[in-house]
Design a protein that fits this description.
Blueprint: E1 15-18, E2 24-28, E3 39-47, E4 53-60, E5 65-66, H1 72-84, E6 91-94, E7 99-101, H2 106-109, H3 114-119, H4 127-131, E8 136-140, E9 143-145, H5 147-154, E10 157-161, E11 165-167, H6 184-189, H7 191-200, E12 204-205, H8 206-212, E13 217-219, H9 224-236, H10 240-252, H11 258-271, H12 276-286
Parallel strand pairs: 6-8, 7-9, 8-10, 9-11, 10-13
Antiparallel strand pairs: 1-4, 1-6, 2-3, 3-4, 4-5, 11-12
The structure holds acetoacetyl-coenzyme A.
């Protein structure tokens, strides 16, 4: 697996949480290089007030449970599985209190060559995160640096703990961001700020990230996970079919011109009139009752 697999090295104890029902073993993953942990499995189970949020956690070889450690293979596999699972409405991706993710494993990259990067298509594995059709919420506590910041930006919504720090420090390593840092960041915060962050390697605070629109909400660190789950649950009350169409439409804003995007949005809006859930949503409003969506 490419070095980017180590993006969650050291401090990143990543947890995938899902709005869903069925407990399942999502994927097996290899050990973190510097965590020294024994965690071997990513598992998903059910949590949340309405018991409709599935929580991923890890299980050690000793049988104890703890938050997931940097699974690269695990995340890609879990995302693929969640995409197929109709009971999953939304996904929460998080880390430890110290770090969401500190970036690709620098020590492992030291000896890499240009030809290895080209031939191994280094960093390409992560396109899976941005391709996921279901909403992904990044719950960022602590550091989101380099590939960690890029991973957060591949998600759909970023909630930040009040001590979170975002940055693209690759310049100090003699390289540049390679998984969207110069592209997604620029689109979100604008050229001047993106340039400042990428050229200096300086970090920004959670509060600044919110001000810039990089994060949509800042909450006390110890409430971050609960808030992210609450958000996933709220998304999960809507039609997952329409949520998917809506996500696709918002993402189109990043991929095309305004005119093309508006055309796409209008046609998608029209397309919702062919769904049972559009009919149910409007009928329920008119009848002053909660909608009973069937995702059809
Ligand atoms: N790769 C490898 N090891 C890392 C690491 C990384 N990205 N980040 C931290 N570590 C290791 C440290 O080397 C240290 O290991 P030892 O205990 O063996 O010495 C351990 O994690 C703890 O780190 P610190 O002692 O530095 O802890 P700190 O609290 O003082 O600082 C930090 C934390 C600010 C995250 C700091 O470690 C740091 O700046 N890390 C590097 C961040 C970085 O440059 N990320 C970009 C990587 S390149 C990339 O991601 C490219 C891309 O676009 C995909």
């Amino acid at each position: 697996m490419a070095n980017f697999a180590k993006i969650f090295a050291s401090r990143a104890q990543n947890v995938l949480q899902t709005a869903g029902r069925q407990p399942q073993v999502a994927a097996r993953f290899s050990r973190s290089v510097s965590s020294g942990s024994n965690w071997e499995f990513i598992k998903t189970d059910v949590t949340g007030e309405k018991k409709n949020v599935g929580r991923d956690h890890t299980e050690s070889s000793q049988g104890t449970e703890c938050p997931l450690q940097r699974p690269h293979e695990g995340i890609s596999t879990a995302l693929q599985q969640f995409s197929k699972d109709k009971s999953i409405a939304a996904i929460v991706l998080t880390g430890s209190e110290k770090a969401f993710a500190a970036g690709a494993d620098i020590k492992e990259m030291v000896g890499n060559t240009y030809s290895q990067c080209i031939q191994g298509n280094f960093l390409n594995d992560w396109v899976e995160v941005a391709r996921t059709q279901k909403p992904i919420i990044a719950a960022v506590n602590g550091y989101a640096l380099g590939g960690g910041c890029e991973l957060a930006m591949m998600c759909d919504i970023i909630y930040a703990g009040d001590k979170a720090k975002f940055g693209q420090p690759e310049i100090a390593l003699g390289t540049i961001p390679g998984a969207g840092g110069t592209q997604r960041l620029t689109r979100v915060v604008g050229k001047s700020k993106a340039m400042e962050m990428c050229l200096t390697g300086n970090m920004i605070s959670a509060q600044e990230a919110e001000k810039l629109g990089l994060a949509s909400k800042v909450v006390p660190a110890d409430q971050l996970l609960a808030e992210a789950i609450k958000l996933a649950e709220k998304i999960g009350t809507h039609s997952s079919l329409i949520v998917q169409l809506c996500k696709e439409s918002v993402n189109t804003a990043y991929e095309t011109t305004l005119q093309e995007g508006l055309k796409f949005e209008r046609r998608t809006f029209h397309a919702t009139f062919s769904t049972a859930d559009r009919k149910e949503g409007m009928t329920a409003f008119a009848e002053k009752r909660p909608a009973n969506f069937t995702n059809e």
